[in-house]
Amino acid sequence: MKRFTSKKNVLVLFLTTMLSLHSCNKTEQNTQDSPQTIEAEVLPLQIVNAQIDQSFRTNLQGKTNIELRPQISGYIDKIYVDEGAYVQSGQPIFRINATVYREQKNTALASLEMARSQLATAELELDKYKVLSNKKVVADFQHQKAKTAYQNAKASVQQQQTLVASADVNIGFAVIKAPVNGYIGRIPNRLGALVGPTDARPLNTLSQAFSG
To answer: What are the residue boundaries of the Multidrug resistance protein MdtA-like barrel-sandwich hybrid domain, all occurrences included (predicted)?
Structure first.
């Protein structure tokens, strides 16, 4: 009878111990799961007006876009305006070095003076043979020959005058001006760049402003 009682006591002790361990584990788990208190500063909120700046990339087009292209070949030695500047009709924008064309004009002027001198000589010869032919001193063939030489000298003068005028035109093309009022676009070429009439891209695109 005593042995049975002892076993019963051991069983009770075992169950009590297990319940105690389970209770401790549950208490520890509840302690770990409970939220911790964190101290934080409280800031009052106020309704105020705020300005937000935003920028967007865009491409503005005028009512008329005019491509500016050089009429002669040469190096850019002057840019009169900046990108985005407003220019008026006739205002200079670019200047191409025109040294070559000035030399061409000087050569044409020298040749023109020589042609004029030859024309004066041919005119004297024509007058001389005209008088001699009328007096039957020389054959009419000589008179016609002198007349042909005079016509050739006259044509040579006109040719050299054309070359001088052409050189003047090229020198005038050295300064590229705005054909209308408007805004300068992006300038891809800078000082010293070699440009010409056959270039794929223009020197600049001038955007004519909208009229108010």
So the answer is: 66-202
Q: Judge whether residue 4 has pLDDT over 50.
A: no
pLDDT in tens, 14-48: 556 665 655 555 555 544 555 667 776 777 777 88
**Residue 117 and residue 211 in one domain:** no
Q: How far apart are CA 5 and CA 90, in angstroms?
A: 126
Residue 28 lies in a domain: no
- Same-domain check for residues 69 and 89: yes
- Gap between the Cα atoms of 114 and 111, Å rounded: 5
- Residue 120 domain-assigned (yes or no): yes
Residues 164 and 112: their CA atoms lie apart, in Å, by 8
Residue 121 CA, chain-centre distance (Å), reads: 55
Same domain? For 123 and 87 the reply is no
How far the first Cα of the chain sits from its last, in Å, is 121
For 143, the domain range is 98-173
Strands (DSSP E) contained in 136-203 are 175-177, 182-184, 194-195
For the record, the structure tokens of 208 come out as 């004519």
Indicate the number of domains in the chain. 2
3-state secondary structure 77-93: EEECCCCCCEECCCCEE
- Kindly state whether residues 124 and 160 are assigned to the same domain: yes
Between β-strands 175-177 and 92-96, what pairing exists: parallel, antiparallel or unpaired? antiparallel
Residues written for the chain? 212
Kindly state whether residues 103 and 140 are assigned to the same domain.
yes
